[in-house]
Amino acid sequence: MPKATAQLRSPARLDVRQHAKYERLIDAAKTNAPLTTAVAHPCDESSLSGAIEAYEAGLIVPTLVGPASKLHSIAAKLNLDISALEIVDAPHSQGSAERAVALVREGRAELLMKGSLHSDEILGEVTKREGLRTGRRVSHVFIMDVPTHPQTLFITDAAVNIAPDLVAKRDIVQNAIDLFVGLGLGTPKVAILSAVETVTVAIPSTIEAAALCKMADRGQITGGELDGPLAFDNAISEEAARIKGIKSSVAGKAQILVVPDLEAGNMLAKNLSFLSNADAAGIVLGARVPVILTSRADNLRTRLASCAVASLFAYSQRSGGKVQS
After folding, report:
1. Are 279 and 145 in contact (CB under 8 A)?
2. CATH number of 137-286: 3.40.50.1580, 3.30.1490.190, 3.90.226.10, 3.40.718.10?
3. Global pTM?
4. What are phi and psi of 293, to 5 degrees?
5. Which of 53, 89, 246, 249 has a CA-to-CA distance to 98 between 20 and 30 Å?
6. How far apart are CA 168 and CA 166, in angstroms?
7. Considering only CA atoms, which of 265, 275, 204, 194 is closest in space to residue 233?
8. Per-residue confidence at 297, pLDDT binned at 50, 70, 90?
């Protein structure tokens, strides 16, 4: 009995497993000088402490944008020293979003970070004509560190585009590929997910998946290997792909998972977080600078990983696609 008991894997042991994939990203980001980051309305405990933790880790230099008196009050309550940081006074959350975006436009910040305001407020300012728009659709990528899976998984889009059409999905895919390449991870294997791995008119996402793959063949999407439609199992499990007879360089080895819509992506990311002990760092791409989106539920490792990813990607953009280290 003692020997058999010793071989059991308890949930408690899973909880303390190292998230080495995040640690590598954080360590890589620390080799670069921290970038000035406009933090919009960090007016609660988690958002202000998260910005300070990233600052103390050497990942960012925050410029705090919000009601100055409130920021000082929260800092005093949490015993946080913000005396060395620039504070840009703004009357409310909307004003904070406007001013934070303006700091980026003025060249006074290279990253943008969401504080305790709603995502729609900051993204609304980013996507205004006079904001930080580019020719690319803005989209979100979760960078998932799943302890039970050997590779970092990129899931997109699970936070911004609710029901993207084919044109939007092209940009969503390209944004994720550019991030993967920009982080120095090589050429990604991109799975366009659906419920099944065969094209059928009854499931429109399978038709769009096939179209995206053909767009990649014709150079409309570049930098990655695409395949789809693929179901989730045969996208990440080589055994599942083998059993179903799928012959593909992507099936079973996918690193980027492109979901059909926001609902599917949100459920997938949260399933991995709550059932597989995964952490989910996240940034928004397609704007002039990366936008760091953190949640009040994020732990310290996830907050730091989000900042690290944004910093590494910003440096890669500086160097024409190669991460400096």
Report:
1. yes
2. 3.40.718.10
3. 0.90
4. -110, 110
5. 53
6. 5
7. 194
8. confident
